[in-house]
C-alpha cells in the first residue's frame, strides 16, 4: 500500500515548517522576543534550524531591512576570529596588508549572528564582552574605539553553563549573550513534523529541475523507517535522506530500499543473531518475536528494544511472519 501526502500542511514561519504545538509556541515567543532589543541565545542540536531562528528574529525586529551578518565562531583561530569580528588595522599581524572592517562594523544598525558561540576562545570573549557592555570595540592592532549599534543573536549546541563550569566560557559573557535563551527541540520531539517535513522536501525535490524521478507516495516500510529513526542530524539530515532517495531510487514510490543504511540500520549484535533464525534458546525467530511482544504487553517499542532491533525491523518481521498485534 502506498502512503500519500496528508491533507494537513504545516505552518511556514520564516522558512521553518512545523505543525507541532511546541514549535507553534516557539514562533509566538520569537515574535515577542524579536521586538525587544535584547541578546538571544538559541540552543539546539545540530540541524534543528538555529540559523533560521536567528534570521526570523532579525526579520521580525525593528532592525529588519538592516544588515544581518553571520559568522561561525568554530571556523577561525583566535587571531582570525578577532579580526573577523572587530576588523584590523594594516600591519596588525602578518598578512594584515590593509585595514579591514569587521562584522560588527559591517552590521552597524542591524544584527550579528554568532554561530557556535561556545567555541569562542577566551581572549576573544573578553573583547566581545566589551562590545556588549559598551557598544564599542577596538579593531585588532588599532588604538581608537569604534562605536556600533548591533543586536547579538548567538547559537550553540552546548550547554553554556557547563562550559562556564569547566572554565571555557566566561560567566559574565554568558549572562550577556543569553538574556533570553531559546530552546529549539530535536526533530523527534516535534509531533507530526517528520511526516510534514518528508512531504515538504519531497515537494521541493519534485519541483527541482533535472531530478531523475518524481515521488508521489511512500511505501509503508519506508514510512515506518522514517518515523522510527532517531534523526541525530535533525531537519538537515532528513532533507539529505530525501534527496538521497530521489537520487538512488526509481519510480513514484519512495521504497524502503531507497533509504540510506542508517535508516535501515539494526542493532549490531542482537539483530544478526535474530537474522540467523533464533538465539540460544533455539526458538524460531517468529517465536522470539511473539514472546517478546507478549512480554511487552503488545508494545512494539518495548518488544523491539528487548529484541535489540529497531521498531522498523520488528514491524517488517511481523509482516513477514503474519504476526498481528
Ligand atoms: N523547520 C524547518 N523547516 C524546513 N527546513 C528546515 C527547518 N529547520 C531547519 N531546516 C533546514 O535544515 C537545514 C539546517 O538548518 P540550520 O542551518 O538552521 O540548522 P542549525 O541548527 O543552524 O544547524 P548547525 O548546528 O549544524 O549549524 C537548513 O537547510 C534549513 O533550511
Ligand atoms: Mg547553524
TrEMBL record:
Residues 264-286 are annotated as: Disordered. GO terms for biological process: regulation of DNA-templated transcription. SMART domains: AAA. Keywords: ATP-binding, DNA-binding, Nucleotide-binding, Transcription, Transcription regulation. Residues 16-247 form the Sigma-54 factor interaction domain. One of its GO terms (molecular function) is sequence-specific DNA binding. The keyword Lipoprotein does not apply. Pfam families: AAA_lid_14, HTH_8, Sigma54_activat. The keyword Nucleotide-binding applies. It comes from the Bacteria. PANTHER family: SIGMA FACTOR, TRANSCRIPTIONAL REGULATORY PROTEIN. This is Sigma-54-dependent Fis family transcriptional regulator. It comes from Lujinxingia vulgaris. The lineage of its organism: Bacteria, Deltaproteobacteria, Bradymonadales, Lujinxingiaceae, Lujinxingia.
Amino acid at each position: 500500500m502506498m502512503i500519500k501526502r496528508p491533507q494537513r500542511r504545516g505552518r511556514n514561519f520564516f522558512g521553518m515548517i512545523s505543525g507541532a504545538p511546541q514549535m507553534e509556541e516557539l514562533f509566538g515567543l520569537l515574535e515577542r522576543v524579536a521586538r525587544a532589543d535584547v541578546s538571544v541565545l538559541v540552543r539546539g542540536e545540530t540541524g534543528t534550524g538555529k540559523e533560521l531562528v536567528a534570521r526570523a528574529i532579525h526579520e521580525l525586529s525593528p532592525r529588519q531591512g538592516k544588515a544581518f551578518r553571520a559568522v561561525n565562531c568554530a571556523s577561525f583561530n583566535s587571531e582570525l576570529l578577532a579580526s573577523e569580528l572587530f576588523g584590523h588595522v594594516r600591519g596588525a599581524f602578518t598578512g594584515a596588508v590593509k585595514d579591514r572592517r569587521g562584522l560588527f562594523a559591517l552590521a552597524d544598525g542591524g544584527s550579528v549572528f554568532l554561530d557556535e558561540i561556545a567555541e569562542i576562545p577566551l581572549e576573544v570573549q573578553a573583547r566581545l564582552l566589551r562590545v556588549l557592555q559598551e557598544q564599542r570595540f577596538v579593531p585588532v592592532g588599532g588604538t581608537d574605539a569604534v562605536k556600533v549599534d548591533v543586536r547579538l543573536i548567538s547559537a550553540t549546541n552546548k550547554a553554556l553553563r557547563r562550559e562556564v563550569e569547566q572554565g571555557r566560557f566566561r560567566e559574565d559573557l554568558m549572562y550577556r549573550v543569553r538574556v533570553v535563551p531559546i530552546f529549539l527541540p530535536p526533530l523527534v520531539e516535534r509531533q507530526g513534523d517528520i511526516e510534514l517535513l518528508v512531504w515538504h522536501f519531497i515537494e521541493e525535490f519534485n519541483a527541482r529541475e533535472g531530478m531523475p524521478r518524481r515521488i508521489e507516495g511512500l511505501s509503508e516500510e519506508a514510512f515506518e523507517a522514517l518515523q522510527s529513526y532517531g534523526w541525530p542530524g535533525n531537519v538537515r539530515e532528513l532533507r539529505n535522506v530525501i534527496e538521497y532517495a530521489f537520487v538512488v531510487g526509481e519510480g513514484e514510490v519512495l521504497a524502503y530500499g531507497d533509504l540510506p543504511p542508517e535508516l535501515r540500520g539494526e542493532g549490531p549484535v542482537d539483530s544478526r543473531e535474530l537474522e540467523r533464525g533464533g538465539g540460544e534458546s533455539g526458538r524460531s525467530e517468529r517465536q522470539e518475536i511473539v514472546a517478546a511482544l507478549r512480554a511487552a504487553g503488545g508494545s512494539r517499542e518495548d518488544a523491539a528494544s528487548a529484541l535489540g532491533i529497531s521498531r522498523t525491523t520488528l514491524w517488517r518481521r511481523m509482516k513477514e511472519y503474519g504476526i498481528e498485534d
